[in-house]
Design goal:
The complex is a heterodimer of chains A (336) and B (345). Chain A is of the alpha/beta class. Chain A is built from twelve helices and twelve strands. In chain A, the strands form two sheets. In chain A, strands 6-7-8-3-9-10-12-11 form an eight-stranded mixed sheet, with helices on both faces. A four-stranded antiparallel sheet of chain A has the order 2-1-4-5. In chain A, helix 4 crosses helix 5, helix 5 packs across helix 7 and helix 7 packs parallel to helix 8. The N terminus and C terminus of chain A are likely disordered. With 345 residues, chain B is mainly alpha-helical. Chain B has a domain of 217 residues: MetI-like fold (Orthogonal Bundle), CATH 1.10.3720. Chain B is built from eleven helices and no strands. In chain B, helix 4 packs antiparallel against helix 9, helix 7 crosses helix 9 and helix 10 packs antiparallel against helix 11. Chain B is globular, with a radius of gyration of 24 Å. The mean pLDDT of chain B is 85. Classes of the chains: A alpha/beta (336), B mainly alpha (345).
Chain lengths: 336, 345
């Protein structure tokens, strides 16, 4: 137990000061800048942000899933189960990946190995982490497919991924992630590649599984509608930083950060007068060639003032579990 | 798959017949006289009678038909007889005795059956060329895998450089270079392959190895260069795939990720290239066999061409064509076996 935050019994994952940099030929890209957050047992933490805001890179950094090089984790601690995952050698991390922390990725079409049967890919973690062999592994694999709602599970174990539809493949991915009863499931845009009806099915399935298995979920998405439906608490990311953290209801009713406010105005409404044009946030997201010295949203911010160009705002607490990185909220910093 | 294989085997028959017709007609167009090497003291009318005795007086369709019958009916009978009489594989079966002295395909040069000569020459080619191919592939696969996994490392750079050499220097040059270095300068290996050498004990085995080293090295360099490049490219394609990340996220060991998940996918195109390369290595060996004086199939082909021995040239060329068709089929079947997404039926 390195510090007070990690020893709190109501936190199962405590990330603080995470910095991830990619070294490329064109120089460095600071993809994740001083990201801190925690995850509580059984909660569903939503992470939203536009493409390139560092959502996925943050989650992949936690478990050493980024290829190093080009990626390099410069600073931070990731406390999980009493150890710092960033200081854990890869040999030991492998016993956590897939066993205690499960991953579901964006594109189910390419995330399964095309030349092995679904059963084989499902049995792999069972064999490695739970030591299940032959019949026992087969039974557990079958049970998992049934859990994620795949009919005729026993027969389908011997099918190859291309014999499944997109939604079914994502169910298989979820089954693999759940294979060893993880405490945390990290879902990286799991419904983005699916069409809307399938998306709804997967969301229902996740809600149900979460209830049954009592695990914490980190759900990465750029779809605010999805977040509104399932999350307990939300992190808004911009330019590799967390700009706002809030319980889901508060985020939609009382957004504090100008970026969050702008994001919410971009959601098209079904009712009311039909808008001629969709609302957009003017400007481009920043290119992170250096660690931000000013507020990364300042260039696009409608309410930016002098101080925003000079220093990078820390996160100021506004309510329990609610903070935002904006100088407009000049109370004391939440994460000092 | 079985239906596909049978269908492909059946379509191979007209293909091969057509190929043999084309080779036959091309050789018909070629200038030259099988009597050219007969001494000038032999009177022209005697030479003419000799030509007729070889069947050259007959019209082209008749001669082609006769070759077909000899090649596809009489020679298989001889082969089956040999299998059931002398081979260790089926020698326990009763002798079938199908062949009863019909005319076989005869070499104009030596007057002995073409297939008998080919069977005599085959072991040398298989030993040298086949061994070179196997060694080349066995070296190439790990090189390709490591080069891709450690892309741009020193190992990869050296591998790329050696592959470039192997690709760009043809065997007729590298062959002479290794002879100059290892036979002439260092005197380690004999420059001429002794076909009559028999392996009976450890000493003769060492001699056999030492005379095989150079031709195998030259041929294997070429094979290694090509296959390792294919393997590297294929591995690189797959290492960046999403399923690799999935395998890592499942907590698989790096060795499992690379040697099971990535390798299995990467082998699909490489196996095809390896299978298709088998017949071409026989073609490539024509030159190498000449350089190292290995009297295998390639050397037989060249001497037959020089001597206008048309039945021999036709038969050997046909065997090359047959191997190409056969290994194309093997490549397709392997592709279907390795990649579950491919279904031929």
């Amino acid at each position: 137990m390195a510090d007070g935050a990690a020893s709190r019994s109501d936190v199962i994952l405590d990330v603080s000061g995470l910095k991830t940099v990619f070294r490329t030929r064109g120089g460095e890209v600071h993809a994740v800048n001083d990201v801190s957050f925690d995850l509580r047992p059984g909660e569903l933490l939503g992470v939203v942000g536009e493409s390139g805001s560092g959502k996925s890179v943050t989650m992949m950094s936690l478990l050493g899933l980024l290829p190093q090089p080009p990626a390099e984790i410069r600073a931070g601690t990731v406390m999980f189960g009493g150890q710092d995952l960033l200081k854990t050698p890869d040999r030991d991390l492998r016993h956590i990946r897939g066993a205690r922390i499960g991953f579901v990725f964006q594109d189910p079409m390419t995330s399964l190995n095309p030349v092995f049967t679904v059963g084989y890919q499902l049995r792999e973690p069972l064999r490695k982490h739970m030591g299940l062999r032959n019949k026992a592994a087969q039974d557990r694999a079958c049970e998992l497919l049934e859990l994620v709602g795949i009919p005729d599970a026993r027969r389908r174990l011997s099918d190859y991924p291309h014999q499944f539809s997109g939604g079914m493949r994502q169910r298989v991915m979820i089954a693999i992630a759940l294979a060893c009863d993880p405490q945390i499931l990290i879902a990286d845009e799991p419904t983005t590649a699916l069409d809307v009806t399938i998306q709804a099915q997967i969301l229902d399935l996740m809600a149900e599984l979460r209830e049954r298995l009592k695990m914490a979920v980190i759900w990465i998405t750029h779809d605010l509608g999805v977040i509104a439906g399932i999350a307990d608490r939300v992190l808004v990311m911009y330019g590799g930083q967390i700009v706002e953290q809030a319980p889901v209801h508060e985020l939609f009713t009382e957004p504090k950060h100008p970026y969050t406010q702008a994001l919410l105005t971009t959601i098209p409404h079904i009712r009311g007068a039909r808008a001629d044009k969709l609302t957009v946030i003017e400007g481009q997201p920043p290119i992170l060639s250096a660690a931000p010295a000013a507020c990364s949203f300042a260039a696009r911010c409608p309410v930016a003032f002098a101080r925003c160009q000079q220093e990078n705002p820390p996160r100021f607490a506004v309510a329990p579990d609610h903070d935002a990185a904006c100088f407009l909220l000049t109370e004391e910093p939440a994460h000092a | 798959m079985l239906t596909f294989t049978i269908r492909r085997l059946l379509t191979a028959v007209p293909t091969l017949l057509f190929i043999s017709l084309v080779i036959f007609l091309l050789l018909e167009l070629a200038p030259g006289d099988p009597m050219a090497q007969v001494p000038l003291t032999v009177p022209p009318e005697v030479k003419q009678r000799m030509r007729e005795a070889l069947g050259l007086g007959e019209p082209v369709p008749v001669r082609f038909y006769k070759w077909l019958v000899q090649m596809f009916w009489i020679e298989p009978k001889v082969f089956i007889d040999w299998m059931t009489r002398d081979s260790w594989l089926l020698g326990w079966l009763p002798d079938t005795a199908l062949y009863s002295g019909e005319q076989r395909v005869i070499s104009w040069q030596t007057r002995s059956p073409v297939m008998d000569i080919i069977v005599q020459r085959l072991p040398q080619t298989l030993w040298v060329v086949g061994m070179a191919y196997v060694i080349g592939v066995l070296i190439a696969l790990p090189i390709g895998i490591i080069s891709a996994y450690r892309q741009y490392s020193v190992f990869d750079q050296v591998g790329t450089f050696v592959s470039m050499i192997g690709f760009s220097i043809p065997p007729f040059f590298s062959g002479v270079v290794v002879i100059v270095i290892f036979s002439v300068q260092l005197g380690w290996f004999p420059s001429i392959y002794d076909t009559t050498h028999r392996v009976v004990d450890w000493e003769t085995f060492k001699v056999q190895i030492s005379q095989m080293v150079m031709p195998v090295m030259v041929l294997a360099l070429q094979t290694t260069a090509q296959i390792s490049r294919f393997m590297r490219a294929s591995m690189l394609d797959n290492l960046g795939q999403d399923y690799v990340r999935t395998a890592r996220a499942k907590g698989m060991r790096e060795r499992t990720v690379v040697l099971i998940h990535v390798l299995r996918n990467s082998m699909i195109p490489v196996v095809t290239v390896i299978a298709l390369g088998v017949p071409s290595i026989f073609g490539g060996a024509i030159i190498t066999e000449q350089i190292f004086k290995v009297n295998g199939i390639g050397q037989l082909f060249i001497t037959a061409l020089k001597a206008n021995d048309l039945p021999m040239v036709l038969t050997v060329a046909f065997i090359f064509a047959f191997l190409i068709v056969l290994f194309n089929l093997i490549a397709d079947v392997l592709y279907g076996v390795l990649d579950p997404r491919i279904r031929y039926d």
